[in-house]
């Protein structure tokens, strides 16, 4: 058995040292684009400043006869675009495909110094991460990449969900995990053709008011993904990496999209995928703590002093546990405000109002 100390040694001679802690960078929305689509590629310079993460997609939604064009397009975009503070990610093809190896070889050797994260689809277990981990180290050494490219896994098979804890802890490169609801639904043989979101047939019904009289009874639609997201969040939190909701496929239903994103946010996710520009603002709004909530959290922290004991604020008890909750909100707000001046101004205004 390898020593635990080996976990933080490069897996190839000349590769950069693995990270000891995943850096938290705002990633409220991972905005997907097809780098082989000329119209989409032309919009990248204008979209990049509006998103936290821009992801060049090489897998699903890219036809087999366009895989090489998409790969080449991403290389050209990465070399020719100033992304500023926006992260550049890619989703490579699945490891069982004929394109994944060339994706990694080309991208790391050509633009490894520009690439922040490689998203790996259909991860089944830790062995998939180990394969990518070693290969990335070899390619980084070859290309002279000075900082390690991180890895993001997608949960979209039943095996992946069953092994999510070992996936989360498989490598120091692990940046986070996303829910992939469409492929996961197929893997589980779920009877839904929707991409994310709920289903009207997945419900609970209230008890009859009078067992002898047939009267209408209220129904309540349930969340198909609650269990999986909660388990993913726990695995990520335990290993110090970041959980994300994946895609919401009904672009026109912005209300349901916002509801689904907010459920994920409240459960602990830090962001979600955006498949269309209309979802960018939804993700920004949902995954940024509300100014009033941030102001309240700051008030609790101030009132609690050293964080021990208990105080009453507006008739509500606050103690060391609530201080920890409030610090989660405030730390996230501070990180987002450093990137988003409008958000910083809103947080400052809410705090001044709270302090009156």
Written overview of the protein:
The protein has 356 residues and is an alpha/beta fold. The protein is 44% helix and 15% strand. It has 13 helices and twelve strands. It has helices spanning 38-47, 67-80, 100-111, 126-143, 158-162, 164-168, 181-188, 226-238, 254-267, 277-286, 291-304, 320-339, 341-355, and strands at 29-33, 53-57, 87-91, 117-120, 150-155, 174-179, 203-205, 219-221, 242-245, 271-274, 310-313, 316-319. Strands 1-2-3-4-5-6-9-10 form an eight-stranded parallel β-barrel, surrounded by six helices. It is globular.
**What is the N-to-C succession of helices and strands?**
EHEHEHEHEHHEHEEHEHEHHEEHH
Number of strands: 12
User: Span between N and C termini?
Assistant: 60 Å
> Mean pLDDT, nearest integer?
93
Structural class: alpha/beta
Largest sheet, order of strands side by side? 1-2-3-4-5-6-9-10
Helical residue percent band? 40-55%
Shape: globular
- Low-pLDDT ranges: none
Number of helices: 13
Our estimate of the beta-strand percent is 5-15%
Largest sheet: 8 strands, parallel, barrel
Give the radius of gyration.
Answer: 22 Å
Salient structural properties:
356 residues; single chain; 8-stranded parallel β-barrel; 44% helix; alpha/beta; 12 strands; globular
Q: What is this structure, in a nutshell?
A:
44% of the residues lie in helices and 15% in strands.
Topology:
Layout: E1 29-33, H1 38-47, E2 53-57, H2 67-80, E3 87-91, H3 100-111, E4 117-120, H4 126-143, E5 150-155, H5 158-162, H6 164-168, E6 174-179, H7 181-188, E7 203-205, E8 219-221, H8 226-238, E9 242-245, H9 254-267, E10 271-274, H10 277-286, H11 291-304, E11 310-313, E12 316-319, H12 320-339, H13 341-355
Parallel strand pairs: 1-2, 1-10, 2-3, 3-4, 4-5, 5-6, 6-9, 9-10
Antiparallel strand pairs: 7-8, 11-12
């Amino acid at each position: 058995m390898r020593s635990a100390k080996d976990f933080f040694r490069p897996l190839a001679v000349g590769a950069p040292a693995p990270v000891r802690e995943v850096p938290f960078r705002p990633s409220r929305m991972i905005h997907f684009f097809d780098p082989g689509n000329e119209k989409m590629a032309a919009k990248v310079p204008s979209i990049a400043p509006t998103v936290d993460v821009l992801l060049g997609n090489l897998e699903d939604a890219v036809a087999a006869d366009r895989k090489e064009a998409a790969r080449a397009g991403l290389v050209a975009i990465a070399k020719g675009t100033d992304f500023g503070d926006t992260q550049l990610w890619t989703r490579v093809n699945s490891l069982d495909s004929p394109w994944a190896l060339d994706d990694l070889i080309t991208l790391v050797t050509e633009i490894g110094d520009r690439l922040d994260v490689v998203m790996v689809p259909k991860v089944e277990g830790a062995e998939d991460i180990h394969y990518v981990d070693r290969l990335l180290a070899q390619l980084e050494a070859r290309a002279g990449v000075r900082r390690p490219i991180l890895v993001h896994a997608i949960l979209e098979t039943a095996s992946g969900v069953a092994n999510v804890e070992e996936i989360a802890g498989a490598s120091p490169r692990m940046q986070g995990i996303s829910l992939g609801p469409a492929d996961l639904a197929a893997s589980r043989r779920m009877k839904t053709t929707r991409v994310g979101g709920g289903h009207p047939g997945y419900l609970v019904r209230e008890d009859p008011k009078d067992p002898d009289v047939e009267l209408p009874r209220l129904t309540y639609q349930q969340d198909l993904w609650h269990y999986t997201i909660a388990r993913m969040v726990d695995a990520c939190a335990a290993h110090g990496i970041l959980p994300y909701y994946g895609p919401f496929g009904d672009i026109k239903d912005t209300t349901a999209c916002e509801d689904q994103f907010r459920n994920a946010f409240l459960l602990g996710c830090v962001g979600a995928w955006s498949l269309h520009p209309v979802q960018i603002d939804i993700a920004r709004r949902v995954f940024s703590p509300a100014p009033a909530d941030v102001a309240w959290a700051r008030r609790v922290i101030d009132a609690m002093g050293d964080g021990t004991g208990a105080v009453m604020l507006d008739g509500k008890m606050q103690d060391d546990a609530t201080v920890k909750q409030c610090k989660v909100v405030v730390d996230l707000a501070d990180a987002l405000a450093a990137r988003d001046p409008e958000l910083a101004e809103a947080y400052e205004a809410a705090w001044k109002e709270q302090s009156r």
